[in-house]
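Let's practice the habit of predicting before peeking. Look at the sequence and jot down your guess about where helices and strands might fall. Then scroll down.
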Amino acid sequence: MPDIVFSDIDGTCVHYDMGETLVPFCADVDFEGETPLGLERAEFQKDDARAWVLALPESSSGSRGIISVDTLKAYARLQDFGCRVILVSGCRCSTLIQRIPYLPQADAYVCESGGRIFYPAQGGLSLVEDLVWRNAHSSLPPVQPSTVAPETYSGDLWEFYRNLKSKGINIDSKNYSTAFRVKDKRVSGQDVPSSLAYSTNLGSLDIYPKTSGKLNAAIYLMNKFSSGPESSVFMCDDDNDIELALHVSRAYLPGITSESMQKTVEENRNHFYVAKRNGIWGTEEVLSEIMSTL
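Done guessing? Here is the structure:
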């Protein structure tokens, strides 16, 4: 029985590009009779399957994710059974904050590939950062206001950033403070200095301090919540999830979105549960499977 359920966000509980049909939004009434916080509800249809979903705000790339109502209920049931739910994502802090009303309520939120950890404040719709963890990364400057440009940051991470920028490399650093994303095939993991770490995510290269990463953040939280890998599981799907997936007692995959994850699953078949269905139904399936172990 797990004490902690770690969960990735994109491709795990939030899904995109499923060839879906979203029947016109019904913002007047939700599945319980009221629309909480004015969130948009839609009927999702794929083949002969239907589900009620919440449609997330459109991303900077123009894509719009969905999360099913039954998914949100299932995460809540895990907490009712005494499990801690921790969301772990490579997304930037501003994206996480924008999504909070649409995501499963969690005991902790990890973003920027492990660089930042937040806890819900009273009421659950605002976050408080764990500055002990944030300041543990020696290759980063102290916490900076969002108005400060990364070109002025100190530390190994941002020195490497400036080096890449000077070579015309395509980098996404907007609203990041503990990581940045390289969207340029001219840069590979072999180019990353030994003082830093990297992972591939959504086809890009995320670069961050060696003290960061999903695994290190998860170990920190296991210790904080007096748990350990033998009492933790991870819902995930992509290359940047592999280290943590192998560290915990079992990993549950709603789908597989990278060749490296597929290879890892084939080499460790007993360690992974892979859903038989895809998308939101795969998420609901693995949540049900985890519930069966409680």
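How did you do? The chain has eight helices and 16 strands.
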